[in-house]
Amino acid sequence: MIYPRQPEIGHRVLADLLRGKILNGDLAPGEPFPSDRQLQGEYSLGRDTVRDAVAILRAEGLIVVRRGKTSTVRRIFDKQPIDLTDVASIESRMPTPDERDDQYIDEGVPVFVVRRTGKPEPELFAADRWYIGPSVAND
Known about the structure:
Layout: H1 10-23, H2 36-43, H3 47-59, E1 63-64, E2 72-73, E3 80-81, E4 87-93, H4 97-103, E5 111-116, E6 123-126, E7 130-131
Parallel strand pairs: 3-7
Antiparallel strand pairs: 1-2, 4-5, 5-6
Helix pairs in contact: 1-3, 2-3
């Protein structure tokens, strides 16, 4: 009988450690994230292990990785409600690369596509900055 190889867990341990640093504020939003090379040296791990750990954090939306630029800890936005006046439909999807660039949306962040009655073009709202539901007023 053939059994699948036991996956290496080193990348998961590193991802857990780095996630903890992000969540407790040791690595603050907007701050540069350590490079793969720095992480390899600091934790004495191989390139693939570090890349796999970084891929986990990226997929979780905790870090922003852009080719040719320093990776950063993802900023956290105060979410605002979407005005539901005259809304005909709302759907969610991933933005196109052009939409991501035009609206400064990080990779991995979905958008709400809002179509309003009487308006030909839909509006896009990044899901990390907007929510659907009633506005909560502070009295």
